[in-house]
Amino acid sequence: MRYGFLEYFEAEKEGKPYTDRQEELKDYLSIADILLENFLDVIMEHEQGLVFHRSVPMTPEQIEIIYEQEPGNRGIDRLDENTADTVKKAFEYINSRYKASDRNDAFLPLRELTEKYHLSEFEKFCLIFSVATEENLTYGRILGFLAQNRAGHVATYGAVLVIYEALYGENAKREYDAGKMDTFFFEADLEQNSPGIRYFRSMRLFHAMREYIFGKGDKLIETLSFKDEDRNVSFFEAEAGTLSGIGKGEPIQIFMEAKDGEDVLHILSVVAMKKDVALYLLDVTDFEEKDYEEKLITASLFPGLVALHLNGEKVKRALEIIRRFLPKNELFIYGGEKMPEGVIPEEMAPIVFSVKIPSMEIRKEIWEFFFKKYEMTPSDDISLEDLSDCYRFSFGMIRSVVKRAKLQMLDVKEKHGILTKDILLPVLFRKNEADFVQLATYIPAAYTWDDIEMDERERDILKTACNRFRLKGRLDKRYGIADKNAYGNGVSVLLYGHPGTGKTMAARVISSELSLPLYKVDMSQMISKYIGETEKNLSIVFERAAKSNVILFFDEADALFTKRTEVSDANDKHANAQTAFLLQKIEEYQGITLLATNLYHNFDTAFIRRITYVARMDAPDAATRKRLWLNTLPKSVPMDEDIDFDFLAERFELSGANIKAILLSAAYLAGEKEEAVSVAHIIKAMRYEFVKLGKIIDPAEFGKYVMY
Asked: What is the pTM of this model?
């Protein structure tokens, strides 16, 4: 040996604690230096006889030297005993410093890795040389020379094996767990699993492992982990507190049932912050890619919670991979309001933890928090109480609505931070949009109370229904009313009357009043002759409505709510079961359900008793018809002043829908000739409407307008 132990190690520090990772790294690199120095000394001593090593390239002269020796002396020679003693003493020196080092004073990554993965002596050698080549390219060049790869600059299994055998002998015990080392330490070679190529397998450390060893993990964690932007303010203290106490380092799996995945991630961010660890997000689809190891290795090295989003089919494979990398991490699985059946294998069945929609009081606090955060002041016509009560939004949904509303305010250059209803309501509508798979259709809320002509008593019923829905959360909380209501605290309204009396319009007015999207259920798509299909369709509609907070409108509801019949055959029994099922769903639904029928007398009285409100939509009287004639078209449409609306209202008993159709037709007739709407256009349009209705009108009924 050219240099001895004391040239590599500071004797006065033996038994003294390490102050930082750099000292630990320096000592391990010294071991690599000792081994490489002495190994190269031997193979370069040509005049004393070449030592045969299977990884070292040889010249013809060197081969001749080997065969000049006696057969028994041609094998692999060992390094001198002094080298082995020096290496042994080096490890004893390092261990003495480990014993003196308090884990709280200095983080020593190589010690942690040795203990965490139970590295054998040979595996430790592999780690030492792979670290050496990462630290200094010279080590890589030397090992490349030993592995017959002059262009190489990383450690290889074969090169380390040669050095190890030269130190301890060809028959030295060398335990090497390829599965462990290839999983956690070394990047994959294309053919790494081929037994014949193991000798040439490179040992380049995973990026996460390099960052861990060289103290650059903070940036890696920042890149790969998730932090909810609002984690410092928790609206789920109870949930976060419960989850913080679960696990305690055990390999526990928890399925987070939640309407909104954002709520789950917010809660887990709070839990991670409380525990002072990272939160790593994984998706089932991640495991279809080749680079998922990086995040998993990071999570295995740096303490953290793991959240797996069920967004793919290969759930079992994803869970198996996670548990191989992270046998002790707490794993939180999310991706639905209910844990899906048959997706997660029984042997991996998790604990179920439900994340409920925040209460009305908490929702108000969340609205207030985000309005303040984004410097927005709701206008006087926006009630925080109504927002909190009517919209059963999750934390994530409220945050999303406020963010979108803020962007809308910037678009319209609102400089004073005032959030108006005109800006907020369209955002609320978009957030509540639902996909009903052709079972229901969105109907715009185009009308207000001022647009609809109806009996004041019936109008009062509809306003009462709206107020009940708007206030139900507050009043139920204050008085405990919901506890006494056997049929739930949703609101259902039956609208009945002749065709054209404004039932659909009334539904649109309610939608506008409550700022909730209106979806009209297509009864032709809903009802099926096959047993169980109608119930299945109804379940889909109500489940999606509950997720989206919308108003459901069943037009021609008598198709399902007809009077129950005596059960004489399977069809009667089937029909009655469908009716009972729909009523059950209406009662369970926490939102508003509207039903419309032209045939009130066909409704079973037992069903009507369980509807919250019933409103009769009467055919308009003469005074109401006059208002409809005067107010249906926009004021911007020019109209002749000599139209006798009193005559039209008194003479023709038309429904509101008929009057609207006539006026729209007349407006287009006038617009075609660029004229103001005149009585001639109206009478002509009226004749078309009567033909459509199949009504034969005596010309004399047109009176003074008969000439048109």
From this structure: 0.72
